Backbone:
């Protein structure tokens, strides 16, 4: 075959193909940046739910872009149309790219038809963060919930996504669960598709 | 039979930001521990001036009849010191490890204000694990 084993030289930097880029970033650098993001938002809001909403919005922007990037890089521009397809995409591909590993588990909610849960022993963003007692149930994982919401919204599966701490017996630190509640239209469409 | 009596962390202005005692030998009430912190901060600073060798960075080890005091000062002026049984080994390594835990679980915590008392759950958990491992290693020998 012609050209095998030869690296093509590009005269114009704009003609070079987009590389996959460096796969890894220093965890400490990210931790400091994320810590500053939380601190900055804390100065702008009056209460905890506002802070959660702001972190979610920040995550939403990331999610929308991650979806576009991954569709181009990893899925060859194919679109997910089924619920389980998009959920396993988030659970495996998105998690692998963002956090270096697939999520711990993906479960369907038992009480409601429209609820699904992605669980992690400890979210990467929460690795170095200790929530003070007076902040109650606040979870910096709201950022990750925002990312998931951004991905689902962009893919055409509107949902309400929240992050919760779930205490586990025998362990000091609670697990984190990302709760995904899909909109009515998504379930109707899924039922129609059979 | 604890080899370590107590651990202190003081900020660059000499204020006590963390104090933990292990066992009754090192126990001090709040006022005494604050006094101890500022006393050590001043002694550390004076020793730098008194030293006959230029470029001295302060006291690293204080040995007495009933205890040893090992001190580690970071580049930013935060001092970590541990009061322990005379002759306890590997305290410098332990102090450096505690410094690493401090940089991870205190400094990367967005809810921690600089130079304020440390109230981070993750720091406490990991510190206990480090001391426990150290204790096991010492007693096992």
Residues:
């Amino acid at each position: 075959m012609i050209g095998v084993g030869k690296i093509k030289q590009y005269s114009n930097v704009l003609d070079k193909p987009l590389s996959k880029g460096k796969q890894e970033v220093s965890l400490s650098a990210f931790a400091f940046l994320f810590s500053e993001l939380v601190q900055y938002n804390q100065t702008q809001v009056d209460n905890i739910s506002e802070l959660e909403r702001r972190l979610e919005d920040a995550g939403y922007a990331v999610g929308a872009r991650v979806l576009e990037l991954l569709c181009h890089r990893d899925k060859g521009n194919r679109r997910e149309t089924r619920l389980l397809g998009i959920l396993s995409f988030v659970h495996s591909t998105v998690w692998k790219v963002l956090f270096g590993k697939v999520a711990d588990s993906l479960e369907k909610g038992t009480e409601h038809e429209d609820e699904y849960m992605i669980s992690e022993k400890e979210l990467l963003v929460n690795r170095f963060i200790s929530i003070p007692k007076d902040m109650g149930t606040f979870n910096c994982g709201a950022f990750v919930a925002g990312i998931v919401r951004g991905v689902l919204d962009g893919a055409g599966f509107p949902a309400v996504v929240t992050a919760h701490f779930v205490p586990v017996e025998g362990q000091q630190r609670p697990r984190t669960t990302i709760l995904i509640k899909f909109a009515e239209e998504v379930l109707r469409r899924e039922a129609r598709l059979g | 039979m604890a080899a370590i009596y107590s651990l202190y962390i003081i900020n660059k202005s000499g204020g006590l930001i963390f104090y933990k005692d292990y066992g009754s030998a090192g126990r001090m009430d709040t006022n005494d521990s604050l006094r101890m912190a500022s006393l050590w901060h001043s002694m550390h600073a004076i020793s730098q001036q008194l030293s006959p060798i230029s470029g001295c960075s302060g006291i690293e080890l204080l040995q007495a009849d009933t205890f040893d005091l090992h001190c580690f000062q970071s580049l930013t002026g935060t001092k970590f010191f541990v009061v322990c049984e005379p002759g306890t080994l590997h305290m410098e390594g332990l102090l450096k490890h505690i410094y690493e835990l401090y940089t991870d679980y205190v400094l990367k915590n967005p809810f921690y204000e600089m130079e304020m008392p440390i109230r981070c759950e993750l720091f406490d958990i990991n510190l206990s694990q480090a001391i426990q491992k150290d204790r096991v290693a010492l007693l096992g020998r």
